[in-house]
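thought: fold this chain, then report.
action: predict
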Amino acid sequence: MIGIDVLLTAGSPFPAQPIDKVPKWLMYQKPSITMPFNVTGLPALALCAGYELGTGLPVAIQLVGHPFAETTVFQLGHAYEQATQWRATRPALLAA
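observation:
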């Protein structure tokens, strides 16, 4: 990644699901966008990027850095959270 310090990708191909709707084997049924970075060992950080209209469930972005560039990834993640309000927002909880 010449000239690129951090890669910004989606954190998931879909918004979060209600916990009672998550299939037991979800990780085998739907693609994982984080898998390439888990396998290669590149530092990656998932952050909330807002909430889906209608359901109010979170959507995520992922920051990925060079090998051993955890500090850069964490600093950018911190700057993003300071510049947005997503960190302080929580989805509504529903009583069962």
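thought: worth noting. Residues 6-88 form one domain.
final: tokens above.
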